[in-house]
Amino acid sequence: MSRIIEPFRIKVVEQLRMTTREEREKILRRAHWNLFRIPAEEILIDLLTDSGTGAMSSEQWAAMMRGDESYAGARSWYRFRDRVREITGFRQIIPTHQGRAAERILFTCLGVRDRVVISNTHFDTTRANVEFLGGRAMDIPIPQALVPAEEHPFKGNMDLVALERLLGDPAHDVACVIHTVTNNSGGGQPASLANIGKASELCRSHRVPFYLDACRFAENAYFIKLRERGYADRSVAEIAAEMFSHADGATFSAKKDGLANIGGFLATNDDALATKEEELLILTEGFPTYGGMAGRDLDAISVGLKEVLEEDYLRYRLAATRYLGNKLTELDIPIVRPPGGHAVYVDAGALLPHIAPAELPAQALACAFYLEGGVRGVEIGTLMFGGVDPQTNHERFAPLELLRLAIPRRVYTQTQIDHVIDVAAAVADNKDSLRGLRIVEQARHLRHFSAKLEPL
Ligand code: F0G
């Protein structure tokens, strides 16, 4: 069969509500031009995130009924722990309510105050957790990652020359290196096993812990199978195991490749560190055999971690994202090429050159997508990553101004994605009429979630 189709059928549906353009204008004004402030009821196609928004399978729902809600030593915990061990090879598994809790516990226990954390690109919560604890988050993607139009099979790779220089520089006390696979903020692009392996070797020789931010590990592993020489005949599970084998530990949000709506973990082989992490876990998340989750969540994730490695699923998953990305390219809408695993990133900087970064072009584009057809994406640009740098007190700008259209797992049909393509075409036809935005109210950390804006 040459056509790649959804390897599932639909058993339960969720009603969507249509709105008119006039209604959406009012809604946007009421939300202060911040799409996080719009109730989901008023969204038609929600591409805000692929995190926790996936559809669970009937097997996962069945597993939830097996959920054991015992406080200590629940059966669900052992199923979860064994599955995570099987996939990652790590001994110590620390269950958290989502990825950012794993990040907070890791960075607290490693101690990042006045130290540096290096990544290909930190995700926003990862950066915020480092900075909140008084550390400095540094991003060193390969140079190609910053050129959206450039085709490269592994744009999620880390710049190994920069890594070696930073690790050898006595001016930088590096607390850890965390490789994000796939690199979400860098366009959902994969990292190669060669790059992961070499980054790991460099860290080992400088005695710096090397971690994976493994939220989308299965998508990354499937890209490796498709694109890296020598892996075409290996199973995705084997490739994933090899990825994890290079790391000292991992943080994981089960809301992505756990195919679950909540959950996460922190994993390591460092027993002493794990003891410290468990102490903090008990203080802020929960007892070590459930952490931040209910027993039923643990079971949903255990099944999800099996389904996510099925190649029919991954083939469909990457094809769905590629379909949207390539259609936008055909329409001459600039995107981060090639399309990533979980999302298509529209290059708002290139599409709207008349809007300066300080006037938030990607946010302006996000608002236009909503107005045009009720589609909600998310700005990954200066609204998310700008603001005042806590180290230098200078205003900073994002390296790229992107609108991310993230695709929830197993949720939308191709017709619905065709609607998104129609919306994108209409917005692009009127791009010269779009105006920038100004921030009128913002929080100190993660300002994009709650900021209030107004059009210029
Ligand atoms: N790391 C990466 C690469 C992520 O994409 C996310 C979340 C996290 C860590 C934090 O995980 O949400 O479970 O606490 N990304 C979501 C997104 C929110 O929309 O991309 P979390």
List keywords for this structure.
binds ligand F0G, alpha/beta, Aspartate Aminotransferase, domain 2, 3-stranded antiparallel sheet, 456 residues
Structure description:
It is a single chain. This protein is α/β, with parallel strands linked by helices and 456 residues long. The protein folds into 2 domains: 21-50 and 311-455, Aspartate Aminotransferase, domain 1 (Alpha-Beta Complex), CATH 3.90.1150.10; 58-307, Aspartate Aminotransferase, domain 2 (3-Layer(aba) Sandwich). Helix content is 39%, strand content 14%. The protein has helices at residues 21-30, 58-65, 75-88, 99-110, 124-132, 160-168, 193-205, 217-227, 236-245, 271-284, 295-307, 311-330, 348-351, 361-373, 382-385, 414-429; strands at residues 45-46, 92-96, 116-119, 136-139, 174-180, 210-213, 249-253, 264-268, 343-347, 375-376, 378-380, 387-388, 395-396, 402-406, 437-441, 452-455. A 7-stranded mixed sheet has the order 2-8-7-6-5-3-4, with helices on both faces. It has a 3-stranded antiparallel sheet with strand order 9-14-11.
